[in-house]
């Protein structure tokens, strides 16, 4: 199983379900909710003011953002299914979360500094200036907590944090939803259990019942009882 598959499993658990539920609203539903909440999908005016203040702030330097972009694309690279983490806007997400949760500021900046210090010790250049194979060699030493050497623990903690942020950021975007195959709620669009699933369990629909209850042309018609 590759890295992307591991991340999918993490994000389709209880945390992922909570994150995805808020994104399932249609634009019309979101507008209605915003009106009910006084503007800003469940946000009070004070909360909206804070959001604007956080958005206006800049925390990371351009060099730090370049390093973050490299890291998240190592974690979630472009593949045949979807684009990379940077193409999904993950660096901007990490910037926002770091500002929104000030407790992230010190460990994130400290982790970036650790990464550059380790890269300079090994390769003579900062991480963003190292070659691709050099970057991967360093990441391999901090990506696996169970086998990492004690001296690598500061890097392990940092990489665990940015890996979680990258996964959360990517898999709560449209690109991430599509990568997961997440469809959200699609009422009146159920065509029954897929044939391959039925075959796997040795089951099948009784054709008269299937034809009666899965008529596409009747999907939007009220049911008349008794059937």
Break the fold down into its secondary structure elements and pairings:
Elements: H1 3-11, H2 14-21, H3 27-36, H4 45-56, H5 62-75, H6 90-100, H7 105-123, H8 132-140, H9 153-170, H10 174-180, H11 195-200, H12 207-213
Helix pairs in contact: 5-6, 5-9, 6-9, 7-9
- Order of helical and strand elements: HHHHHHHHHHHH
User: Cα-atom Rg, whole angstroms?
Assistant: 23 Å
- Number of alpha- plus pi-helical segments: 12
For the record, the count of structural domains works out to 2
Q: Shape, please? A: elongated
Query: Low-confidence parts, pLDDT < 50 over ≥5 residues?
Result: 14-24, 32-39
Mean pLDDT over all positions: 82
* Portion in beta strands: under 5%
Largest sheet: none
Taking the alpha carbons of the first and last residues, their distance comes to 48 Å
Estimated structural class: mainly alpha
Strand segment count? 0
């Amino acid at each position: 199983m590759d890295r992307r598959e591991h991340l999918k499993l993490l994000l389709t658990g209880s945390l992922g379900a909570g994150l995805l539920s808020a994104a399932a609203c249609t634009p019309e539903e979101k507008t209605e909710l915003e009106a009910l909440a006084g503007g800003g999908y469940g946000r009070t005016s004070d909360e909206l003011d804070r959001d604007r203040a956080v958005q206006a702030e800049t925390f990371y330097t351009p060099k730090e953002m370049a390093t973050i972009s490299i890291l998240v694309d190592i974690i979630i690279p472009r593949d045949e299914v979807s684009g990379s983490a940077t193409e999904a806007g993950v660096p901007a997400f990490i910037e926002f979360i770091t500002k929104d949760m000030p407790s992230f500021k010190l460990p994130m900046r400290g982790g970036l500094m650790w990464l550059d210090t380790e890269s300079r010790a090994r390769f003579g250049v900062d991480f963003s200036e190292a070659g691709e194979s050099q970057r991967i060699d360093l990441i391999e030493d901090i990506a696996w907590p169970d086998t990492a050497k004690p001296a690598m623990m500061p890097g392990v903690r940092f990489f665990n944090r940015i890996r979680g942020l990258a996964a959360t950021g990517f898999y709560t975007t449209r690109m991430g939803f599509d990568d997961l195959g997440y469809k959200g709620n699609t009422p009146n669009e159920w065509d029954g259990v897929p044939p391959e699933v039925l075959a796997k369990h040795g089951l099948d629909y009784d054709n008269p019942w299937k034809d009666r209850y899965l008529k596409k042309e009747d999907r939007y018609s009220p049911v008349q009882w008794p059937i």
